[in-house]
Amino acid sequence: MRKVLVIGASRGLGAALVEQYSSGSTVFATSRSQAPDSKGSTTYIGGIDVATENAGQDLVSSLKQNSASNLDVAIITAGYFGTESFDEPSWEKELKMYTTSSMAPVFLVHHIVRAGLMAKGSKIILVSSESGSITLRHQCEGGGNYGHHASKAALNMVGKLLSLDLKDQNIAVGTVHVQMTKSVGFDKFWDEGGAVTPDQAAESLAKFIDGFDMSKTGEYWAPRGPG
Asked: Where are the beta strands (DSSP E) in 68-192?
């Protein structure tokens, strides 16, 4: 049975991915706060705050305690979005966005790979956003939200670098944009952004992961297309 790790599974896309994979796969799902009770083939692991320095070590320890090994897929979907503008930039929000989106994946992947928890031929998927694209940013959209856009751009580079470091271990690394999902607090952007439900995003991402392999490692993909 396939083994899947979902990091950031308490709500939204992460929770939908757990539901998507719970039928037919052994799933390990993390949350920052207290985890819900494990059920069926899904084991929940609480207390994994990816924005902290020890998150990778804590994750490895918890995975080993739950007899996790030979993971086939690891998906990092944990994120944070804080609004800001040129007139009111936020040091605290930017620091949290950079830490969560672009620093944490390096340390999480480092620890789970070094601990020997990823199977040969496994896949690591980093959930990013087209908001990190410099080419797709235009005058009509304006500036602002520096931490959000720049941390996603940094994550895209992190994905490329990790793919180079893990190529010899036959571990494929991909960075994906799954389209805007209907999340609480962003409803005013749903129509303009062509938002889909977390379940729809999870279904298309899971299908993409099925066909993702070393021939696509290090690349940025939008399984549902741009938007």
From this structure: 71-76, 118-127, 172-176
Q: In whole angstroms, give the CA distance from residue 11 to residue 33.
A: 12
The tokens for 58 are 């804590």
Question: What's this model's pTM, rounded to 2 decimal places?
Answer: 0.91
Cβ-based neighbour number of residue 159 at 10 Å: 25
Q: 104: which 2 tokens?
A: 């944490």
Give the pair of three-digit tokens for residue 46. Answer: 């609480």
Q: How far apart are the first and last CA of the chain?
A: 34
Handedness of CA 61, 65, 71, 76 (dihedral sign): negative
Q: In this structure, what token pair is assigned to residue 11?
A: 């709500």
What is the pLDDT at residue 66?
A: 93
108, 94, 224, 225: which is closest to 158 by C-alpha? 108
